[in-house]
């Protein structure tokens, strides 16, 4: 392409106090290109994005937008220059309608402070049509699913005439079909001449979408290369990318499976809960086994976990734990019975961000380690130190706040909390979501170790390769029901997806 | 990234140091400029007059730590005082029986707040705003707004007038209360749960902590504390009256927030609250003794203004210092 690139960053540096977040990053984005940005958590991706969107001022290096150097970029200026960013968590007003949200963002449809509703709706409808999203502009954002909200964000970006669209892990919470829809939108944007900076931890997406890929490691851009040659031949392999990211070769991706499994730990018989829309689920998890729970988002997997853990107790069916009939009525009760639950939403449920990690780790074992309800700080610190070492958690110490850790390390802290309870059944809900490749394989290894020690593991994951690679058996849910259970030796991505999608 | 300091922790430690300095400056000023401020008599006076508000503040601290608020404690003091008066005068109960019944009434009223807030999940501000009116209204209806109960058992009145080991009895009760709440908040799993709930009630539930029961507890304790404060108030004034404790809830909240507890919950300490109580108590007493203020007779008004100013300064100071230090950091 002869015209100047949409974006050119040269040797950008940025420090926060003593921490050098970016040590010299160069990056280029052309019109009509999808340029993937890869890197472990903490490699500097977020900082780089904030530099591009004007939220952070770089300490050194140059930033050119459409051929002209820009030195004082602010978020407002960046938006005027056609840079839009779609974050993992859509930042929309839940109580307003889709059209109102779009109108607010684009600051259109209003003349002298009065809203022109007709124009507002027409505009919203046009933008949504353009990206092929079937969303009612009058629907409240609260009623939309996460992917739908992301589509609204994209419509906003499109409406603002963005030439550079940054997508930060847009598929983290999307199902396969929703991903397809998103990919379609990316192609539309690309065809219209926009450039897309695409960030994802899922390598298969990089291969499906990206034209070029830049790998960041420790605040430096390690390499930029084309994903395919002009004939469409793939030029780089997944393992190559991973070793570029982690700076060392990654061996076997998944640990070997269980050889033998023991007695049933959890037996569900026709369990249901009206409130959460789960009906007649029967399944068994054995000691030493990883049972994968696959299905689309909204298929009732997290809801089932919440029933087992007593957050929304079951109102029909029976449940047995280690052979004894139980009715779990509260999370407290579940903990006492030996059930652990690492929830999907780390920031809201898995961890208390403002509390030190040792205090986070002991939360579920208060009665056990603090008899008489009196805190024992020495014992608490010891637990913190123990799990920091055992799980290889990267933190300044047991007193580091949960929020100061990277995503993968937060996940390990959340896991440590439940390991401290020595549960017989451990439910893991999307344990590697938003976790970088290095930490991901560590977590995988850990899960298998736990199973080998005799724990029953129920693994909920939307990451299909993960479910296939890690589980001994795979149960598939759809519409609140369990539709199929497959042996992992026979299951393939196709058979699992087919079960998850098949219409009743 | 992992070497980042713990910002919230540092924040409140610094706040308490700052508050202690302010308290020190305030006391020094009054010591030199206020009439008869430093006398033993006056110091015991400060304690006697602020013990009730102080106890309420101590009980308010865990409530605010969970992210809640209790506006009803002042009104409950009035209701408890009236209950005590009715039981001793109209029903002719013995003092001991009446004390026990008053404490029970406090527990029950606190439990009512707790049930609405923790189990029905109504917002604390609204619930206690309701009981703020309800409890005071009950007290005033019982006395028709005019009746004041006087003349009590002299042993009971000793509670308000006598000294024990050179200190007013209130000082000992307050010290016990302070110790109780300090241990509760800083050394027990209950206190830990209050803090966790203040940061994230949902996150706490997912850790297997019985959030409802834990949320309820501070309100029940606040009710009991209000009953104790009502008894002290009655013993000090030799009167049981429906307007006992009017406005005390706001003074208590001010002391807690001044003491560095975040009104959003999670952050705070009982020692900070103690400094906050002391700062307000000293200010109220000292300002009225400064000669110019004494002559003009505006002690109460000035004290209220300065308490407000103190609160705003204490809240703004850490944010301002952070602002200034950040400005310096970007310059270098």
Key terms:
heterodimer, A: 504 residues, Rossmann fold, six-stranded mixed beta sheet, 34% helix, globular, B: two-stranded antiparallel ribbon, 14 helices, 2% strand, disordered N terminus
In words, what does this structure look like?
The complex is a heterodimer of chains A (504) and B (332). Chain A has 504 residues and is an alpha/beta fold. Chain A is 34% helix and 25% strand. The longest helix of chain A has 16 residues. The radius of gyration of chain A is 24 Å and the shape is globular. Chain A starts with 6 loop residues before the first strand and ends with a helix. Chain B has 332 residues and is mainly alpha-helical. Chain B has a domain of 208 residues. In chain B, helix 2 packs antiparallel against helix 10, helix 2 packs across helix 11 and helix 3 packs antiparallel against helix 4. Classes of the chains: A alpha/beta (504), B mainly alpha (332). At the A-B interface, helix 10 and helix 11 of A face helix 1, helix 8 and helix 9 of B.
Enumerate how many helices of chain A there are, as a single number: 18
Q: Report on the biggest sheet of chain A.
A: 6 strands, mixed
Strands in their spatial order, largest beta sheet of chain A: 6-9-10-3-11-12
Number of strands of chain B: 4
- Oligomerization: heterodimer
The CATH topology of the largest domain in chain A is given as Rossmann fold
Unreliable stretches covering 5 or more consecutive residues of chain A: none
Give the helix level of chain B as a range of percent.
Answer: over 70%
**Rg of chain B, Å, rounded:** 21 Å
Question: What's the helix and strand layout?
Answer:
The complex is a heterodimer of chains A (504) and B (332).
Chain A: E1 7-16, E2 19-29, E3 34-38, H1 45-52, E4 60-65, E5 68-69, H2 75-80, E6 83-86, H3 98-106, E7 110-111, E8 114-115, H4 117-130, H5 146-159, E9 164-168, H6 176-191, E10 195-199, H7 203-209, E11 212-217, E12 220-226, H8 238-246, E13 264-273, E14 278-286, E15 290-294, H9 301-308, E16 316-321, E17 324-326, H10 331-337, E18 339-342, H11 346-350, H12 357-362, H13 366-369, H14 377-391, H15 407-419, E19 425-429, H16 437-452, E20 456-460, H17 464-470, E21 473-478, E22 481-487, H18 493-501
Parallel strand pairs in A: 3-10, 3-11, 6-9, 9-10, 15-20, 15-21, 18-19, 19-20
Antiparallel strand pairs in A: 1-2, 1-4, 4-5, 7-8, 11-12, 13-14, 13-16, 16-17, 21-22
Helix pairs in contact in A: 3-4, 3-5, 4-5
Chain B: H1 7-33, H2 40-65, H3 73-90, H4 95-119, H5 124-142, E1 149-150, H6 154-161, E2 163-164, E3 167-168, H7 169-187, H8 189-199, H9 201-206, H10 211-237, E4 239-240, H11 248-258, H12 270-287, H13 291-296, H14 299-331
Antiparallel strand pairs in B: 1-4, 2-3
Helix pairs in contact in B: 1-12, 1-14, 2-7, 2-8, 2-10, 2-11, 2-12, 3-4, 3-5, 3-10, 4-5, 4-10, 6-10, 7-8, 8-10, 11-12, 11-14, 12-14
């Amino acid at each position: 392409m002869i015209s100047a690139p949409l974006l050119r960053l040269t040797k950008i540096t940025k420090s926060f106090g003593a921490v050098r977040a970016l040590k010299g990053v160069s990056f280029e984005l052309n019109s009509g290109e999808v340029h993937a940005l890869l890197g472990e958590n903490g490699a500097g991706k977020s900082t780089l994005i904030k530099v591009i969107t004007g939220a952070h001022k770089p300490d050194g290096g140059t930033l050119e937008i459409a051929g002209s150097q820009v030195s004082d970029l602010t978020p407002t200026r960046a938006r005027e220059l056609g840079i839009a960013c779609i974050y993992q968590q859509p930042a929309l007003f839940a109580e307003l309608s889709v059209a109102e949200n779009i109108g607010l963002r684009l600051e259109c449809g209003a003349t002298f402070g009065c809203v022109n509703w007709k124009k507002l709706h027409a505009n919203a409808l046009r933008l949504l049509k353009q990206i092929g999203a079937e969303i009612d502009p009058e629907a409240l954002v609260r009623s939309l699913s996460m992917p739908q909200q992301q589509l609204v964000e994209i419509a906003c970006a499109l409406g603002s005439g963005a030439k550079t669209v940054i997508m930060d892990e847009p598929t983290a919470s999307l199902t396969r079909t929703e991903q397809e829809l998103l990919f379609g939108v990316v192609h539309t944007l690309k065809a219209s001449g926009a450039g897309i900076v695409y960030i994802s931890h899922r390598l298969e997406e990089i291969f499906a979408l990206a034209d070029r890929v830049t790998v960041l490691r420790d605040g430096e851009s390690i390499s930029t290369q084309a994903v395919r040659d002009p004939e469409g031949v793939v030029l780089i392999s997944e393992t190559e990318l991973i070793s570029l990211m982690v700076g060392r070769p990654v061996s076997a991706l998944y640990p070997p499976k269980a050889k033998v499994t023991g007695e049933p730990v959890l037996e569900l018989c026709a369990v249901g809960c009206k409130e959460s829309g789960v009906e007649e689920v029967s399944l068994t998890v054995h000691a030493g086994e990883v049972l994968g729970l696959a299905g689309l988002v909204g298929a009732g997997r997290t809801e089932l976990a919440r029933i087992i853990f007593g957050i929304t107790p079951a109102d029909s069916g029976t449940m047995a734990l280690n052979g004894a009939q139980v009715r779990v009525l509260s999370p407290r009760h579940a903990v006492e019975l030996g059930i652990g639950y690492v929830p999907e939403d780390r920031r809201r449920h898995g961890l208390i961000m403002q509390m030190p990690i040792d205090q986070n780790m002991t939360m579920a074992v208060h009665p056990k380690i603090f008899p008489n309800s009196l805190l024992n700080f020495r014992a608490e610190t010891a637990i913190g130190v123990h799990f920091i070492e055992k799980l290889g958690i990267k933190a300044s110490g047991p007193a580091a706040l949960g929020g100061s850790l990277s995503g993968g390390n937060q996940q390990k802290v959340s896991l440590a909390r439940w390991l401290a309870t020595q549960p017989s059944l451990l439910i893991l809900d999307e344990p590697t979501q938003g976790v970088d490749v290095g930490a991901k394989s560590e977590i995988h290894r850990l899960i298998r170790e736990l199973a080998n020690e005799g724990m029953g593991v129920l693994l909920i994951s939307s990451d299909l390769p993960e479910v296939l690679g890690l589980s001994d058996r795979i149960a598939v849910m759809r519409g609140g029901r369990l539709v199929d259970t497959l042996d992992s030796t026979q299951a393939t991505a196709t058979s699992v997806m087919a079960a998850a999608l098949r219409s009743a | 990234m992992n070497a980042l300091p713990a910002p919230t922790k540092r924040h409140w430690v610094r706040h308490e140091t700052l508050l202690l300095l302010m308290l020190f400056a305030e006391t020094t000023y009054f010591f030199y400029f206020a009439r008869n401020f430093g006398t033993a008599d006056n110091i015991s006076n400060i304690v006697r007059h602020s013990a009730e508000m102080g106890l309420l503040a101590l009980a308010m601290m865990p409530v605010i730590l969970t992210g809640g608020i209790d506006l009803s404690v002042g009104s409950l003091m009035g209701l408890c005082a009236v209950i005590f008066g009715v039981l001793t005068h109209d029903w002719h109960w013995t003092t001991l029986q009446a004390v026990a019944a008053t404490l029970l009434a406090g527990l029950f009223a606190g439990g009512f707040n707790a049930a609405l807030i923790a189990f029905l999940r109504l917002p604390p501000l609204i619930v206690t705003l309701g009981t703020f009116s309800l409890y005071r209204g009950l007290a005033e209806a019982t006395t028709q707004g005019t009746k004041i109960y006087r003349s009590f058992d002299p042993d009971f009145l000793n509670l308000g007038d006598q000294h024990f080991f050179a200190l007013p009895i209130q000082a000992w009760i307050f010290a016990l209360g302070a110790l109780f709440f300090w241990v509760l908040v800083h050394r027990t799993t209950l206190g830990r749960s209050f803090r966790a709930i203040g940061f994230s009630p949902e996150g706490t539930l997912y850790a297997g902590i019985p959030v409802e029961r834990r949320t309820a507890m501070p309100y029940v304790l606040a009710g009991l504390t209000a009953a104790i404060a009502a008894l002290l108030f009655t013993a000090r004034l030799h009167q049981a009256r429906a307007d006992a404790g009017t406005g005390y809830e706001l003074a208590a909240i001010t002391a807690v927030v001044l003491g560095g507890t975040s009104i959003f919950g999670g952050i705070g300490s009982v020692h900070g609250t103690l400094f906050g109580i002391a700062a307000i108590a000293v200010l109220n007493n000292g300002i009225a003794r400064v000669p110019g203020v004494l002559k003009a007779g505006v002690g109460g008004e000035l004290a209220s203004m300065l308490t407000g100013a103190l609160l705003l300064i204490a809240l703004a100071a850490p944010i301002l210092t952070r602002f200034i230090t950040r400005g310096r950091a970007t310059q270098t």
